[in-house]
Design goal:
mainly alpha
């Protein structure tokens, strides 16, 4: 029996390249950047350098080496993707928790503002500040005059300017 290592590796590669493609195709791997092809070539090279002819046929040995190397590489990529997904999910979870905390903080702030104001003043804050309606629109919604709505706004500004918790929020 002839020692396979006596052959040039390029001849071996030409002979077994289809086997590499076969395994890539059989595993249904999309390989647009030939990453798996390179792994297969490396596996073939390792099989070629590590082959012991007393252990059996080179064809079977190369077949197993290529297949298992591709499987290992696929598992490695899957593990890396799982780690990336975990990091993304963790970051997303932290972001959601922060959004919830911010929302609770805002709700607490608006509750304190509401308790400081009269009902009509709160309506001005609700429609003008929170929802962005114009004075004319608020007057139509509340069935009152524009001057009345403007006066609510003046009173709100005066009260909140002097309010202790608003001063604390600015710090």
């Amino acid at each position: 029996m002839k020692d396979i290592r006596n052959n040039d590796f390029n001849l071996i590669l030409d002979q077994y390249k289809n086997m590499i493609h076969y395994h890539i195709h059989r595993m249904r791997i999309r390989d647009p950047h030939d990453e798996f092809l390179q792994e297969g070539i490396m596996a073939l090279f390792l099989a070629w350098t590590g082959y012991d002819e007393s252990k059996g046929d080179f064809n079977a040995y190369a077949n197993r080496t290529i297949r298992f190397r591709l499987i290992d590489h696929l598992r490695k990529i899957i593990r890396e993707q799982e780690k990336t997904d975990l990091i993304i999910n963790e970051a997303h979870t932290k972001e959601l928790i922060q959004q919830e905390l911010d929302l609770l903080e805002k709700q607490e702030f608006w509750k304190r503002v509401k308790h400081t104001l009269t009902d009509k003043q709160w309506k001005w804050v609700y429609w003008y500040i929170i929802h962005g309606y114009a004075v004319k629109e608020i007057a139509a919604i509340e069935r009152t005059t524009e001057d009345a709505v403007k006066n609510w706004g003046k009173e709100v500004k005066r009260k909140l300017r002097d309010s202790a918790f608003i001063k604390d929020c600015r710090k």
